Amino acid sequence: MTTKSAAPLISVVIPAYNAEKTLLETLTSVSKQSYDKLEILVVDDGSRDGTFDLAQDYGRSDRRVRVLRQENGGVARARNHGIREARGLYIAPVDADDIWHPEKIELQLQAVRKLPDGHGVAYNWYAAIDENGVIFGHSRPVMHEGNIFEPLLRENFIGNGSTPLMPRAELLRCGGYDAGLRDNGAEGCEDLKLYLALAETLPFALVPDFLTGYRFTRGNMSSNAYRMLKSHALVMAPIIARYPGLMSDIRTAQFNTTHWYFNKALADRDYVQVKKLAPMMAKYPAKLIIHGMRQSWRQVKRHGIQIAKRLLKKPSPRPRTRFAGATIPQAGTAFSDRFMPAGQAVSPISSQVAGHE
């Protein structure tokens, strides 16, 4: 771990709106970080439930917690409020329903300090968790580092707002998160827009492990596919204007994003979303044909391989359990099982952090 004398203060910013059901678990995962030189800013975004009182109560036991309050203005404004009030050299945002592995901040700080002058952004992979903290999927474990601007245009592999560690000065230079997307009815890609702005000038460092538990619930923003796609289009429009040579990559990314949401809506039998997305899919007839042909070829190839293996009596390969040294999250297991001994209960507040300033 970084020595105390050289340890920078890191500001954790938690935007919270009507989050009383999940905020305690989020705060616990932050309090239990192995790197403890933190200030923890909970920004209550005009909640109408017990979010504010819960955060205040938690702060009485962990004095690193500071609770801010604003009228409801959306997650971007809440994050920006926290960034302005922060005193840390780096900002680590986490949404009030997501959770962290205990070593997330420590490993990210080690990674970012390997960059020139420690100036850049660190990220990691994530596990997708449900309402109960049970894993049902994970991010594709990409290995992008350094200049990641073009790969990030093609795919938002960071994937959520609870993962990066970012220098506060650069966030302020970029203007923070774009609250105007919400005002235009296109909330959802504020994270991606900020990451792209940072990636134009800063190197990114990767911690190759699944350190973020990113919670998917029926009511969260990513479930509103049409709004997310509108947000993505607004974010990409000025980038296409600045980098016309990257238009093809951006259009492919837009098609892939639209196609993913369309398939998700079909799988969820969300026919309201299907109806909204169908006209957007119709904009890509050529890509749909090519994509369909590739999918058919993959299915034929997969089927042929299975037949050949049965004829040759070859055993099926074991599912992969590790990638780049990291344990791959297993569906059906709790995210907390990745770092807690069996049978250990989650304590609301770690005795290790009680009394910290």
From TrEMBL:
Its EC number is 2.4.-.-. The keyword Glycosyltransferase applies. Keywords: Glycosyltransferase, Transferase. Residues 11-145 form the Glycosyltransferase 2-like domain. One of its GO terms (molecular function) is glycosyltransferase activity. It comes from the Bacteria. This is Glycosyltransferase family 2 protein. It comes from Rhizobium aouanii.
